[in-house]
Amino acid sequence: MQMSRDELIGAYRRMATIRQFEMRLHDEIKSGEIAGFTHLYCGQEAAAVGVCDHLDDDDYIVSTHRGHGHCIAKGCDVKGMMKEIYGRRDGLCKGRGGSMHIADLSKGMLGANGIVGAGAPQAVGAALSAKLDRKGKVAIAFSGDGACNQGTTFEAMNMAVVLKVPAIFVFENNHYSEHTGVDYAVGTNRDIASRAEAFGMKAWRANGCDYFDTYSTMRELLDHVRGGGGPAAIELDTERFYGHFEGDPQRYRGPGELDRLWAERDCLKNFRARVGEGGLLDLAELDRVDAEVSQLIDEATSEARAAPPPDPAHVAEDVYVEY
Amino acid sequence: MQMSRDELIGAYRRMATIRQFEMRLHDEIKSGEIAGFTHLYCGQEAAAVGVCDHLDDDDYIVSTHRGHGHCIAKGCDVKGMMKEIYGRRDGLCKGRGGSMHIADLSKGMLGANGIVGAGAPQAVGAALSAKLDRKGKVAIAFSGDGACNQGTTFEAMNMAVVLKVPAIFVFENNHYSEHTGVDYAVGTNRDIASRAEAFGMKAWRANGCDYFDTYSTMRELLDHVRGGGGPAAIELDTERFYGHFEGDPQRYRGPGELDRLWAERDCLKNFRARVGEGGLLDLAELDRVDAEVSQLIDEATSEARAAPPPDPAHVAEDVYVEY
Amino acid sequence: MAVMNIREAITRTLAAEMERDESIIVLGEDVVGGAGTAGGQEAIGGIWGTTPGLFAKFGPDRVIDTPISESAIVGAAAGAALAGKRPVAELMFADFVGVSLDQLWNQMGKFRYMFGGKTRCPAVVRLIYGAGMNAAAQHSQSVYAMMTAMPGLKTVLPTTPADAKGLLTEALRGDDPVMFFEHKALYGVKGEVPDGDHRQRFGEARMVREGGDVTIVTCGRMVSFSEKACDKLNADGIGVDLIDLRTTSPLDEEAILDSVEQTGRLVVVDESPPRCSLASDIASIVAAKAFSSLKAPPQMVTGPHAPIPFARELERAWVPSPGKIENAVRQALAYR
Amino acid sequence: MAVMNIREAITRTLAAEMERDESIIVLGEDVVGGAGTAGGQEAIGGIWGTTPGLFAKFGPDRVIDTPISESAIVGAAAGAALAGKRPVAELMFADFVGVSLDQLWNQMGKFRYMFGGKTRCPAVVRLIYGAGMNAAAQHSQSVYAMMTAMPGLKTVLPTTPADAKGLLTEALRGDDPVMFFEHKALYGVKGEVPDGDHRQRFGEARMVREGGDVTIVTCGRMVSFSEKACDKLNADGIGVDLIDLRTTSPLDEEAILDSVEQTGRLVVVDESPPRCSLASDIASIVAAKAFSSLKAPPQMVTGPHAPIPFARELERAWVPSPGKIENAVRQALAYR
Ligand SMILES: Cc1ncc(C[n+]2csc(CCOP(=O)(O)OP(=O)(O)O)c2C)c(N)n1
Ligand SMILES: Cc1ncc(C[n+]2csc(CCOP(=O)(O)OP(=O)(O)O)c2C)c(N)n1
Ligand SMILES: [Mg+2]
Ligand SMILES: [Mg+2]
């Protein structure tokens, strides 16, 4: 897997942007200024970025309730996102959607979704559209280990195989759906990939805390799909570093679990170690990226804080194109 | 597989009852007296009977739109069923349900169902109840090859595994869902059993046109489930001898297909051949059974024809136990 | 103008629009028929006979049979619509909104709003609905009230071949998700259909009769039942304004209120159980907005608060009948 | 009488009834919490904190965490109820009826009727509903109208701790499927709760205030919003009959009609979009059955025909406010 310096720095920048975006939210939420439910993606950055680094704006993704990482990885405007999460008039969705409903069609980002499992059939539809367009585009459904038990996800997998569309099911197995462990909820002993295989598609597995593994496995997968091999699935073994939502007491964690995760399963740390050992990059460059990202997030936050709220008079607009 | 004379005759009687019931309906429907949609079970008799012969009234089954065979195999009153299908006041469901909604809780028959896939979760619930009762009872969900693509069926399989309940998924693969072939609609090359396995349960396969194969495979399966092995699945390779519903032009059939099915895949013929060859029974005994069944179906039909219709004044009764 | 029935009007409109607009695709269970069988495809052309010939003409990429997975059918339509296509998804029975509601209600109906007005989801969902075939409790329901209640969706119910063409064309050229309801007992209804381009704007009710004594507001199969009632009433010199809503969302409030302002008497006929129904919706709007014109309590003719039964005698008792409609009109008139 | 909040009343009632009746089981996502984790079970006791302690007390057979599969959760409840149990299934957000509607509507709601009155399906489905937490379009909806419309289901909405106990007890002792709606913004509401056995019959509305000038009919969170409006109105000498429906199916028509016959003026307040809503239902019933008593057009205070937005300012504008309720009452009074 050969990557250029720029590609490496870009990948790191996207992961770092997600990380800092989420950690900032983690802090800001304590202030009480951010309303609603916020599900942080922190810990899973390598998954979103390792997948989306293969895509361009014409490829589609559908996302989940834990969607900030997917949005950033797919190129959504960070400041617009922050304003959205703050519920501001100029947010990416005018403050109507909030954290769970960010979309940007111009980036091929078809939407985060508050309904677990709802995105997968939509990805099949987007993939159907891509197939008709014959431009080699794909549609990706991000799902969690919990979402993989929802009927819609199963139906979507079967339908993708039947319709032979370039749909890709990315299962981010972070071992929890809310407070429930994957060992319990997925009847097949947490093996999501083989369940996908049984639907008649090829499935891969990768370490979702390792950018390089995710990225290179996705390359293989995409060669298969773009080569006309039909839909595919990948199970990414990853970690969620914070609670299910902000405010979660996380009593389901084992003793020392979070410390271990931060120590051993931090994709940013792993990335740094890898590029450092391999002499691929001067780590100082990554420090510079961190500083730039930090500046961006600072700006995004202060601009969002200062931004005007939506006008209540517009509450019933944009329901229809025409009514 | 040792079976007594009585057991053999009983099994034949139940299959013949289904066969004659359905063939009579096939004729009667032409008269226009029977309303609604009727889906005939003819051809699949060995499946229902081979499964239900292991059950008693305390075991549960949930059925489908093609439910007459399951009802008869589980012991529902044939005359009550016929009246129900004729829409009569004294029908098993007072003429409110009709062909697609026959139930008899006293027989452990929790209901036919017009919604494809709806029964499977209900079987999980009945199995949960059976598990709590600790009497070794099981709950069986009959599903078709088409129903096995419905999200509810998948959810039910996973949940049965997670909750470790004595639920059994019987997939009657008759190769068609309405006008669509299973080779098309089930993405895994018509292999339903292995898909069930991928949900984490043990799965069997049997020839659903062969009573003996179905019966003996079910014995194995039930030993596993009743022995605490958790839920299980079985795929029965079977055939539907008539159209999807009465009136179906069946243009999806290959040339000579139906003739071949009647010649080679008739479970009643197969049963006779087997008991004849093995010298297990004198075939004259089966002829006698046929005659008795014929008499029963004659009576059921003429009684149903003569029976009084429901009183329209009662249209809104029995919605609630108390309101 | 050609004469054809509603079934044919739908098939021809689909074909004409698919010809005109490459982005239109059709998907659903057995909309082609015969996939994966020895008999070969296009075995049926839709269980209701509304999509024959489309597969032969437009091929497997655009006319697509699906597994029995209604959530995925509607969800795929939603996703394809976001991604630039105009999918027409068929729910063989409207009752199957039970297994696909989320994709209709929380997904395609809400995308545009949730995403700040920046997306379009021009999906058409065809729902075959209604009683009259003794298909019993799970295959006979009229779920248009449920859909009407849902912001973001449009709800359309043609009752003539001309409207079937006009409303379907409008649906396929608009940019919002449309619930296109086809009554299974109306497919055979014949009538003249305008040639060439024919669009029927949504939110524009059809004045079926103008009589001036009482206003009947209704939709779907109840339009023809109401016409039968009107015939009886006419014979007694009673004139009815009969309004076929055509679309319940958007709603032509003006047509309703204008008529009630003249007649002062309202009968709403709705093939549905009574509670939170379209009947209650229309009656409440009239009570709120034409209160001073009302000379009698609004009459709501609906089915009972009960599922739809199977037996002929029971189904007939369940569905509002011409006789009940006639009675309601007489009661509205008798009130002083 | 002990003082507690609605959350506690629900937990204690569940515990007391489970103690009394072995056939009651509880199932849903994270109703225990922590299954299959290193932290161990009973990590949370329900995402809303309504089921803590039940697992410890009644064990894994009766308090059951499920995968994220709402159709299977509700379907399993339906099947277990047919098979003799009394399941209490939790839909963490009422909006998830979108992914489980069939099992509610076409299955548990119809069994008894379809099967000729020979079965019972005593399942209780707890639906956590309502706006007020900025949870946006897919986690804030009040779907009680949809459920009220469905024959075979009962729809229950407690607004006080005493009613939470009384109505839940009644649900658990009855033999019909009950949709038990818990407003997420009301869990903390405190009040006195009768000790011992306390059943609140369904179909018996609660007269919150008696004022005589105008009738407000409402339910859920809108009861307290209406009380705020009443306070303002009282200050101006305006007396309101405020009716908390408690259950919308069955409906206490008598209480509503009795009051309107006195006041002649009706305001319905409904946390829902307007079309085919409970507001339209009540207004139409009153218009039809108390027409001669009505002195003013019924006022319906609802949200707009739009999904529920996220931002605080927008959600607040969407939900009917005490101010809007007050206005509606004044308009009702102003009408001559
Ligand atoms: C249909 C539905 N059921 C339940 C929920 C509540 N819920 C939100 S997130 C979540 C857990 C999802 O787990 P997983 O898919 O593993 O994603 P993760 O949270 O781990 O990213 C649940 C149960 C929901 N939003 N939608
Ligand atoms: C949810 C739902 N979708 C579609 C239908 C229409 N329908 C009835 S039977 C059927 C085919 C079922 O096929 P299968 O499960 O193989 O059963 P079979 O008819 O072969 O017994 C279909 C599509 C339905 N009744 N319910
Ligand atoms: Mg997870
Ligand atoms: Mg089949």
TrEMBL record, chains C, D:
Superkingdom, natural source: Bacteria
Enzyme type, top EC level: oxidoreductase
Keyword Mitochondrion applies: no
Coiled-coil regions listed in the entry: none
A Pfam cross-reference name: Transket_pyr
Cited SMART domains: Transket_pyr (SM00861)
Keyword field contains Oxidoreductase: yes
Enzyme Commission numbers on file: 1.2.4.1
GO MF annotations, alphabetized: pyruvate dehydrogenase (acetyl-transferring) activity
Keywords noted in UniProt: Oxidoreductase, Pyruvate
Transketolase-like pyrimidine-binding domain boundaries: 4-189
Protein name per the record: Pyruvate dehydrogenase E1 component beta subunit
Lineage, opening ranks: Bacteria, Pseudomonadati, Pseudomonadota, Alphaproteobacteria, Sphingomonadales
